[in-house]
Amino acid sequence: MSAAIETSGLGKRYGRTWALRDCSLAIPAGHVVGLVGPNGAGKTTLLSLAVGLATPTTGQVRVAGGRPAGSAAALDAVAFVAQEAALYRNLSVADMLRMGRSLNRRWDAERARGRLAELDIPPGRKVGALSGGQRSQVALTLALAKRPELLILDEPLAALDPVARHDFMSALMTAVSEDGVSVVFSSHVVAELERVCDYVVVVHGGRIQVSGEVEELVAGHHVLTGPSDQADAVAQRFPVVRDRRTFAQAHLLVRASDPDAAPPGWQRHAIGLEELVLAYIREPSASALPGPKPAPGEQVAC
Ligand SMILES: Nc1ncnc2c1ncn2[C@@H]1O[C@H](COP(=O)(O)OP(=O)(O)OP(=O)(O)O)[C@@H](O)[C@H]1O
Description:
By secondary structure, this protein is α/β, with parallel strands linked by helices. It folds into two domains: 3-214, Rossmann fold; 220-282. It has helices spanning 43-51, 72-77, 93-103, 109-118, 132-145, 162-179, 190-196, 214-219, 231-237, 273-282, and strands at 3-14, 17-28, 32-36, 58-63, 67-68, 78-81, 150-154, 182-186, 199-204, 207-213, 221-227, 240-245, 249-255, 267-269. It has a six-stranded mixed β-sheet with strand order 6-7-8-3-9-10, sandwiched between helices. The chain has a four-stranded antiparallel β-sheet with strand order 2-1-4-5, covered by helices on one side. Helix 7 (190-196) crosses helix 10 (273-282). It starts with a strand and ends in a 20-residue tail after the last helix.
C-alpha cells in the first residue's frame, strides 16, 4: 500500500533545539490522520517538513506515494492549509480563486465556485471582512480545488467556535468521501479525533510516541481494575501505559488485545481513543508503535 507520508530518521534542529528527531514513520494512504501532542511537541515541524516548507537536518521525508517532500511532483499532489490560513486579507474571495488557478497546474474552478456558493460566501467580499470560520472554509476550498492526493492541515480548528468547527470537519469528511483524498491534520482537540480520524499519530518532545489505526489501538488497550496488592504481579504480565493505585484498588491501562487479559478477580474495561491518547501524552516514556510489541512486564519505553 502506498504511503501518504513516509519518513526515515527524520530530524529537524533549530539552533540547539531538536524540534523533531529520529522520526521513522509510515502513514498509509487513504486515512484521516490526527496528529496530536502537547505544545511544542513537533507537530508543525513534522508537517512543515512533509510539505517542503522546511528542510530536514537529518533523514528524509516522502509524500503521496514516495515523492520527495518539496519536489515539483510533491507540490502537485499535496495541498496545505497552514495554522494561520495563508490568505491575503485585501484580496476578494474571487481574486484568491483566480490566484489559485494561476498557481496550480491542476485546478477545479467549477468546484471551488460551487463550494463557496453552497457555503453562502460572497465571491466579491474581501477576505479580511470574512469571519474566522468563513476564512477557514475559503482556505479549505482553495486546497481542495487543487484536487490533491494528500491534504495536510495544521491546527485547522484552533480559531473556530464549536459550530464552525463542526461545519469545517463535515466539509472535510465530505471531501474525503467524494475524492478519496488522504488527510493529515494536527489538532489539540483530542475529543474530536474519535469522530473523524481512523489513524492517529502522537508526537511528544520531538519524538513519535504512538502511531497506528484507531481501531487497532483501541482494541489493543484495556484498563484492568483489581486489588492493589496484586497490581505488581499483574503489571509484570502486561506492558503498562498508566498505573493508578489507591490503597484498595488499582487501575492499570495495559497494552493487550487478548480478550482474556483480565486475571481472576480483575475486571477488564474497554477504553476510548480520547482517554488512550491522553494517557500516552501524560506518560511520555510509554509508546505504541508498529513493530514487535513490548514483552509482558516490560514498561513500554521509547
Ligand atoms: N523557527 C523556529 N526556531 C526555533 N525553534 C523552533 C522553530 N520552530 C519550532 N521551534 C521549536 O521546536 C519545537 C517544536 O515546535 P513545533 O512548532 O513543531 O511544535 P508544535 O507541536 O506544533 O507546537 P504547538 O502545538 O504549540 O503549535 C519547539 O520547542 C519550538 O520552540
